Amino acid sequence: MQQAKSLTRIYFPGEVAAHGVCELDAEQSHRMSRVLRLQIGDAVTLFDGQGAECRAVIAAMTKAAVRLQLAEWRAVDRESPAPVAIAQGISSGERMDYTVQKAVELGAVRIQPLSTERSVVHLDAQRAAKRVAHWQAIAVAACAQCGRNRVPVVAPVMSLAAWLASVETGAERRLFLTPDGACRLHELERPAHGVWLLCGPEGGLAPAEQRDAAHAGFDAVRLGPRVLRTETAAMAALAAMQTLWGDF
Fold first, then answer.
1. What whole-number distance in Å separates Cα of residue 19 and Cα of residue 54?
2. pTM summary value
3. HEC states along 182-196?
4. Coil, helix or strand for 76?
5. What is the CA radius of gyration of the chain?
6. Which domains does the chain have, with CATH numbers?
7. What is the Cα–Cα distance from 143 to 62, expressed in whole angstroms?
8. Please, what are the averages of pLDDT over each run of 10 residues along the chain (248 residues)?
9. Closest CA to 107 of 132, 130, 139, 155
């Protein structure tokens, strides 16, 4: 009998008792049977998005459905000790998809898409809701790939001004990226309660937006002497934070 790869992970947020049976939806069933070519008796791992996972074995398989026999659910924590939430100016094309995917892999705990002055993409309410659902699906897939059992929330799109006005006062460190930042990440003390990281879209944050961010308690930081693309900047900052304060 063929042994399934240990990295085959399936997101299943539904409630299933330990040692119970669950049936996957049509999309997941198609992926397992037609894409991954798994067979009856192969083992997979389910994760619920809230911090738990369990081993499961394929008990039955048809063209339309896959039924799994579950073992015991258990809490498995692969979250970073340095929680970083990202507020990202919406970028165009696949850049935003890339940003969401890599941010999840690098440990981001929340992603807030923002409409900013220099955003190339402008979304009406209907399109924004569809894009958020798309980005949330990317976040789920990234968790399946990287082993995280907690799925970060991709929040509804907001304007930068509205978001800055709504961010609750907390103990987290607030930072925004700009080539003209007064300091670099390694010059900062280790944050005791996490970080809100604000990143601009193509072209960065406008001067007035930087002033508004500073007024809301965000400190300007730079990532060296080179100007990074929007999809590079947040990832470089996340990787640096994981190295300085996290689990890298």
1. 10
2. 0.92
3. CEEHHHCCCCCCCEE
4. coil
5. 20
6. 9-75 (2.40.240.20), 84-245 (3.40.1280.10)
7. 26
8. 60 80 89 89 94 94 89 94 97 94 98 96 94 98 96 98 90 93 94 95 95 96 94 96 96
9. 139
